[in-house]
Protein 1
Amino acid sequence: MIDSIYQKKLNDLLAVCRKNLRSVDEDLITRAFMLSLEAHKNNLRASGEPYFIHPFEVAMIVAKEIALDDVSIASALLHDVVEDTDFELKDIRAEFGDAVADIVNGITKITDIFESHEVTQAESYRKLLLSMVGDIRVMLVKFADRLHNMRTLEYLPPEKRLRLAKETLDIYAPFAHRFGLAQIKWELEDLSFKHLHVQEYEKISRQLRSKRREREHYINRFVQPIKKRLAEEKLNFEVAGRAKHIFSIYNKMLKRNKPLEEIYDLFAVRIIIDTKDNSECFIAYSIVTEIYKPIPERFKDYISVPKKNGYQSIHTTVIGPDGRMVEVQIRTRAMHDVAERGVAAHWIYKENNASLDEELEGWINWVREIFEQKNDDTPKELMESFKLNLYQDEIYVFTPKGDLKILPQNSTPIDFAFEIHTNVGYHCIGAKVNGRIVPLSTILRSGDQVEIISSKNQTPNAGWEQFAVTHKAKSHIRRFIREESRKFAEEGKETWEKKIKRRKISMSKEEFDKFVHSLKYADIQEFYSAIVSQKIDVDTLIEQYVIRSKHPVGEEAAEAPDSDSLFSKFINTARDLTSGISVLGMNDNFMHQYAKCCNPIPGDDIVGFVTTGEGIKIHRKDCKNVLSLRLAESERIVEVGWPSEHNADYITGIHIHGEDRPALLSDITHAISTYKNTNIRSVNVDSHGSAFDGRFVLYVKDTDHLSRIIEKIKNIPGIDSVERFAGKGE
């Protein structure tokens, strides 16, 4: 026999279960109740009440507000037994079976992660999120656990109180939103806000209380004509009105930078239709908008196009009596159940009770998509992407074939491209939105039709991350950039070590670090990457190092060579078949390379820089990398000239500024490609407000060829300036 107080609690719990659950194993719940009561009999909460009250209240939340199944109720009663008492998981498994034991174990693991603050580690956080993939009831019971803890938060020390409130606002409330648990999400937000911003919470709460009677009178006045018309149409309905939640109101005040008195859309009315016919919701909508003038841009049809978490409803905002804005939500009873209880309303198991059906499986696919693949995201990056994907409003955009894609608000064509396929994202060069070419940074809106323009030569750049929104796009961009950086660093290191070995230069790690630091690079990897991306010329750099340090370099260490002996040595060891660059007026062909730091093209004023064993490096005369060498080692500078005839293509770059407009990118690429079939190697386009900013890397014959292209581009409407830049590395 148990105390009459606890017997009443058991009876109350069983009554709620019978009312809300599809089926109830009363023996299972009773046994879990009794074991939890026994296990916690000597424990007290911070409030001083028996600890058992906590698992009991958690079970009541699961039964009443989430309404899962009897296994979840038993798990809720037992969720702290393994962690806080002498009972072990094997005892739970032996007494209640694998399903209950696995849920209790999952909840314990989540608790352990948070208690040890391992959640700051991205990998641990990913494990936390994936814990729900096996059995989603783990997280749903955890929501109930956290909700009851938040309801009794005032009994904890201030430091722990603030930590739990912030954790709830950052993690649990967004999760509840993603799971469609609207009521729990709102309460978690308001309770967190209450402890994190005490004064603001109290001020808004006090103002709402003072206006409560006035608000109730207004809502009643608003709904009366609606009720009358709905009844005339013989619809079975329920109408309820309320003020919006405190945290929601606070966010409106911040967003609009206005006091509460100037926030007018504080009223929300919900119309629930008892029907399976969705068309009756639209009949109700037409009635509301006949009575009150709607605000067109505030209409949202989530019935035809549900949110990712399954939410369905019609939203509209109308001008009510006295010119006040009122939000109206219209939905069926089934839609309301999903809106309030989210994934729990879809809780359907197959006969073997082991795996979820297809409908429920869709609820957790997003976890696999976002977190199952390991990546190098920092905890901060992971948290930012997590909150964006869980919490942000959604937009609905379409492919050219009419397929629907749901993306977070403020998504760009970059996000859309990666949503289609990773390879489409990697190679996208631009996009057409509703038939017009736009930059990749363009913000998409619901209803847009988006077509991605791609090029096999295009790859992501670091700037893309600034206007990508989805976790999928951001993580793939970061992964690509980091992988390319690693590859560049390895390739650059190999190039550097091969060059200095050939020059017989030996430098200590300390000397090397000092040298790299003097070049203003943040670290060695950035230096190596700059070599591969051709921001610096290795041979020129080595000569600068030799000049600065007077480091012995083979036979050159004994004495500085005169220009004749150096040139003689060069022509004896480095003569090779080339394209005809003339040196010192001679007609011989000499081995040479074009410096990537300045990318000279025929028509440029050029000089040659003699390197030992590497031939002549051809630079533009105004190249910043040879200016420091011109005075220091003038004997290595040789006059060179272009051949009288040449058929080769040379790489160069142009930087274009202008006023952004539809089809501008198309006009520019057409102007370039139609002049002498000029080949475009790569394009990087961005826009800032109404400004267009583009970098194009091309192949040209000479400076005249480049000048003609620049003139053609300048004649395009909207172009402000066209300038040459050095090329890929700049």
Protein 2
Amino acid sequence: MCGNNRIRILSSLVAFLAIAPLPAQNHSGEVPKLVVAITVDQLRGDYLEMFRHNFGSKGFNRLLNNGLIYSNIRYNYPNPDRASAITTLFTGAYPSYHGITSEKRYQIETGQEVSSFADDRYLGNYTTEKLSPRSIRVSTIADELKIASGGQSDVYAFAPYASQALASGGHAATGAYWIEDYTGKWASTTFYKNKQPAVDQQNRSAGSLSLTIGSLTWRPAREIESYNAFPYTKNRYRFQHYFGNEKKESFHLFKQSPFVNSEVNDMAIKVLESSQLGKRMNPDFLAVTFYAGNYEKALDKNYSVEIQDTYYRLDQEIGRLLDAIEASVGLKHTLVYLVSTGYFNEQEIIPEGMVPAGGDFHPDRSQALLNMYLMALYGREQWIKKYYDRHIYFDRKLIEDRKIDFADLQEKAAAFLVQSAGIQQVVTAHQMTQAGQNMETLFLRNGYYPGISGDLMLELQPGWRVVEPGSELQVRERSNAVIAPVIFFGSDIKPQKINRTIDATEIAPTVSYRLRIRAPNAASGKILEELY
């Protein structure tokens, strides 16, 4: 064989190896004794890299150096939030199947805004809220683990908010707990029949958050000179946030601070150790939800310091949790995975004198104009019941009584509304139920659930800001998602970096595969090939 041919063959082989997929990790096939799901609400991958120089060796760096890392996760539906995103992670399905479209929903029958987990059939423990996971219409990872183990596996979930705990605990949790909005107690629902002694002891102790909130003040954990990750921040200021004793206001602010991660972690570690998780024949499951978003009163000159302090403290909490797992079960016997909810509630501070692209979208004005248009077509009635979270709900009974073609009314309303400034497209409920959709419509369809979603769904143009009366949160629309890595660590996981965006629906079937159980019954994603 001549030299030129050998060079061509060698070059082709090198090119093939460069583009060929990496082989799956070879693992022993041993089922982990414990799975620890760490969900970080609003974790940003760019911040993780920017702030990494301040992290220690036991938290994020331990995961980043020794874990299997996917560069990004995508939630393929509009406007994910803490409720819909976490439910997607644990069911492997989108809201169009699991039914949790957002943190709250508009209840058509009563005309009220309620929790997506509202359920009058069950009472609260340490809360007056009546909630349950029954709104999740499909099974979760934890449900399938309970079924596979004949009910012998323990499943616990701890989170700042009820929606997070219920979504990650699922229908069969041994216990799912959250921090109550008014009292700071660890709350749950009578849907779950078991009581966890460690939780009750904490609620009755002198160290309960309900008794200590007034003495807590958030100050920087480090010298602020070390919080230097933002290149455009000229001045850095020390901050001091006192949560006070104003009941709901105090705990509302507390849940937006890094202190909430310490509270969640304390409870999770106590139950990990006292309940002997991971020390029985069947594997156990522990779901922990942390927070990495902004502090609503920090949208000023202190934002850059406060968000860096939040990540610094979160790094310490993750290190503390990993140490507790190592001491109690052993990391080699535990599958740990960390994932973000894939969104970030960021309010831009526009410099004085700058006129940004886009504008302000006023839903109340658009609703009034649309109703006037429908009056001209169908008569002087109030055709619209509610605008809620980019959805418009019509008075269906009125439309039915007048014998109006509902699909035709939706189409005419959408055609009128899409001409409004700031609206990119309007999709009707009728379109959502039809086959043969394009990719853009499919994206919206993934977030649509009949009977919960509205009759019209609005997509705003990037740069436009929703301005609703009485609401302080005014976020500008962005079409580019937050970059958020996914990390698998522990049980037979070899360090590897995968530069690929994975789908949120791939997490549940992959974790189920490692547990050697069925995937949740509506899981639509494939098993991640590197974890076979």
Protein 3
Amino acid sequence: MIRRFLGDRRGNYALMTVISMVPLMGALAIAIDYTELIRQRQDTLNALDAAGIATAQQIVSGATDDATKAYAKNFFEANLGHVQPANTLLTVTLPKDNTGGGTLVLQAALTYKPYFVPVAAMLLGKSSGNTNVDFTARSEIRLKNSLEVALVLDNSGSMTELGHGSSQVRFELLKSAAKQLVDQLAGQAQLMKQVSKPVQFSLVPFAASVNVGPTNANATWMDTMGVSPLDQENLDWSTLTSSALPNQYAVKSGNYYYAKGSAWDATQLNQVLTRFSLYKWMKRISSCTKNSSNVCTSNIVYAPIATWGGCVESRPYPYNIQDTAASTTTPATMFVPMFAPDETDNVDTNSRPANNNWHLDATVSNATDSARQKYMPKYFTPGTKVTPAYGSNAGPNASCSTTAITPLTDVSVAVGQTAVKTAIDAMVDVGATNVPEGMAWGWRTLSNAAPFSEGRPESEKGNDKVLIVLTDGANTYYTPTSVTAQSYSGTNYLQGGNDLAGSKAIYSSLGYLAYPSQTKPFNSTYTYGRPFLGTSSSVTKTDYSNANYTKAMNEHFATLCSNAKTTGMIVMTIALDLDSTKTTEAAQMAALKTCSSDSRFRKDSTGKPLKLFWNSTGATLSDDFKEIGNELSNLRIVG
């Protein structure tokens, strides 16, 4: 009987079922907990994303820090679904606490407490221990891109004309539209309490040159030591000899000339002679006791002839159309103060004077007019009569007609907004049109590197750098006989000035166009002037005409546009009152349109991005600037 009992297998299925139920139930418990964990994890993610978007909207509307964090917590917990709020922890990092700003960070921690895992562990014969599951998730919401805008605005003399379709002059229309744009963007910026300097504007007024500001005379990027090949251009320090001025002369050592002689004071003696030396050390008689012939005889008081107005030369190609940092190791990258040479006292056969004759030549009578123009002793010969000082756009500051650059300024604060608008109102309209020079300096104001380093690093995400370039005419650089000469009292005054010195152009930031009998320092003699450097064969280097000068400047402009956009700059261009039936103006319109970037948001009927180019008139300028403001507003919202 015992043997039959031991051999009986009829109840084994029940026993095996009982034994197998232990791992089966454990697996089922794990499966249920895993499914619930996935659901709670997804609910947490959904709540986190929703809270991020909702909280960002609170920040944009101007909520305080405490209110923002409380709102984020309440919104997150209200949307957790099956998750118990007690099992979560939300951490809110506001945009202002992040490097670079602009990004809201929400991080959620979820502790999942399994329903069955402890039981399953015991069934499997294992210690339960801590069976909670921890999970973290992070959500980043960029509120709006920060924005840096350079207003590069034409301040040439043609801006005094009435705007087409308007009873106001172009310049007043431009000032109004530009201030309107600043106000529009400033209004948005003032709500962005969580972002440092959310919207910044710089202002670059341009005409024949750009004014970087006389306060930058000692900046590291200015050529204070005369290392640039442009420093001695049109000046011949070798003429300042001891035979010409026995007690105040120059001696060359290496590439430089040094002040020698007892007439130099202690701060001047043995110093390198540069353009800054001229501004600081040229003297005139400001007051004296005169004789019957109006000649000073005693009590003579000397004063500077002029102080540097702040305008700089255009750097030699290719640096004129680049943002290459200024460095003494590459002398041509340094920025050189403009100094308009005193031109010949002589008049031509038509009794035309030179365009910029502001000092007595003080040279021998048989000297050539080119030699008279470069003769240095005249600048240190005060004369015998009281003479006035020269200010902007006169004397050595000729062609320096614009107000100074306003660096990037935060318009989210009232003081910054007012400063930019005040600078716009202060602009003056006089001079020629050099769009490439204006745009190049606009680019430099947006750069993170000197000369103007207020811009955010180019590598920073979520920041847009925008160049807005407006002009009402073609690029211009004039021959001496094509423009009105300085005021002249002769009875045979004619239109235009003479070019007895053979310079081929009036002086501007581009200097002169030809350099007869001129030896350049540092073995950098140019065979032709800077406007022709780097141009194609279509620009004839011996064609000294306004039209050819414009063609050369247009080529530089095209390359500059390409260079700027390659670095990520967004370029917006505006042609104001240009006439497409005129060849030069039509070419400028085409160049401006080609220069402009593509819109990220607006498309034409074929789905192709629209160009950020506006063909404006005086009547439409205000509305066009509103459209530009809308485009900039869209740039700030990241999809």
Protein 4
Amino acid sequence: MSIKRLLFLIGGLLLLATVVVACGSGATEEMTGGQVAAPAAEPPFLAAWAGSAHADASAEAFVHWDGDDPAVIPADCARCHSPAGYVDFLGGDGSAAGMVDADVAAPGGVISCTTCHNDATQTLSSVTFPSGVTVTGLGPEARCMVCHQGRESGGSVAEATAGMAPDTVSADLSFLNIHYFAAAATLYGGQARGGYQYEGMSYDSRYEHVEGVSTCVDCHDSHTLEIQLETCSFCHEVDTVEALRDVREPSSTVDYDGDGNLTEGMYYEIQGMQAALLAGIQAYAVEIAGTAVAYSPDAYPYFFIDTNANGILDEDEATVPNRFTAWTPRLLAAAYNYQLSVKDPGAFAHGNKYIIQLLFDSLADLNTQLSNPIDMSAMRRQDAGHFAGNTEPFRHWDGDPDFGTVPNGCVRCHTATGLPMFLANAGSTIAQPASNGFQCSTCHDETNWPNRYTVDSVSMPSGLSVTFGEGADSNLCITCHQGRESMASVNRVIGSTPADEVSASIRFRNIHYFAAGATLFGDEAQGMYQFAGNAYFGQNDHPASMGGNLNTCLSCHDAHSLEIALSTCATCHTGISDVREIRMTANAIDYDGDGDAAEPLDQEIATMADLLYLAIQDYAADTLSTPIAYSPTAYPYFFADANANGLVDEGEGGYSTWSPRLLIAAYNYQYFQKDPGAFAHNGRYVIQVLYDTLVYMNVDVSAMTRP
């Protein structure tokens, strides 16, 4: 027996002796005043703890090693399956933190008061996951996360399969098990990288619930471990734990599993995805790996050879000698993610979108090899833009040295907390942690629930103010959907520089994305670059339909899914399946000069934009002697076309040979590109600006018509 274990045993016996004396029936006299002391009080929460899984001395988690010879809990298991191992891992016994130094004798005991309440846990504020990622700034939930994080990660799978052909069976591979109740890995999603994440795909980060209900101990009683339903019921109509499976946020507006049910709880969406992935795993195992496989969530090692190929695990097949061994790297990755989703029974609440993304990508990857792929046509991987926490608007800052910190100039529209801060502080913001998409409280005032924040007017980047009406909900939308530049900011950059003179002080000004509010208000917002002496349309005046106002954001878009209310459009525009098909029949004007006055307005604008891009390229090459090329997705969008092939090739850097004329044309072209709904938001305003820009670039517009 090591000195450390001997000291720990002696300490435990002394503690036990103290408890026995304190709790004995005979009271003792205190040395002060000869008073008789009352019996020692029962430790707080003892009864609550006694009925919990942490106190169940008969549970497999604590008795698994009792029958071994020798009966010891291995050091790599002791951290979470014995109090001595847990304290040892945290360095609470005086040893180095971060590892368990020795095996622990079985039975090792249950998770008791002093396991979680000691000097080491009082200061614990960070946890390192199996992926190697360390999460800092934690509170009491860190004690839970030390164990509830799993034992493997996507990195484990990548390491095990490194250098192997993806579809070749290898005897060197065996199943990797995430382990049980890895809730923290699910909760922290793409940040902790508990799942096998596919190259080129982005994933939700830490799941964020509303403030005060986002950690382990916010949702679970720390002693009974029970879910605190009274907290859930404040927003969700639940009175049992089972009812939580029916919960679905209003932001979950897509059919993830493709079964046509958009109202079922996220628990059932995950179940549907799991069933599809298991079918894909089984199909791949037969067709590619050459051995049928069946799965059991309860029998180790979970995946077995399906000897009779009936698709289910029969009793005589669930034996360790019959374990599945025909692993390929592709199959192992999918099976690992499947098991991860099963072994956190609360995944639907801890991080449902991350789990769905893992299941979706695993199945899509298997499908690339199947002769009859599993139908995924109706499945969806991610949410609408405001809630798609895996997308660039929310994940852009994850790779920065200060991981996940959004600078103050971006927080208003790219964090869940930024908009309320902006409104509460008259436009002032400070840097905020990155968000996993918007939350209910981003637009709904928690102090006046469920009302939305009230905005009477909105200041645009031009300095002009616009409004849909006092307190109109759509004002809230355009607080963000307004762009970041304007005609005024372009003019500030240009200054007094002659139109065709290159200046090192001129840099491209990017309107930013989805500046729909600036488009809709036209001349009242002056988001596009307008030319002196010309008149421009102001706020788009869409005809009213069925007594409704169709000139606001929320009259056309669903507030949560952001989808266009096509049924509303179809009231007047019959027979359409896409708003891009719309053309006002009373407005038969050939704006772009191609001879077609009946084509949709979207196509009229696109033709003019294409001509503008050609003019930009001709001007850059012929007048400025520096060819230019454009990418709608790669920052900074305009690049020096070194080989003059008209394309953005790898290695070509950002364009820097700017003159005022080129900047104005490029700014307006980019504006059109970054508002894909410009044709509907204020199509004739956009045509006016593009027409005038073509004139400015000396393009023949004689066949065109300016509204």
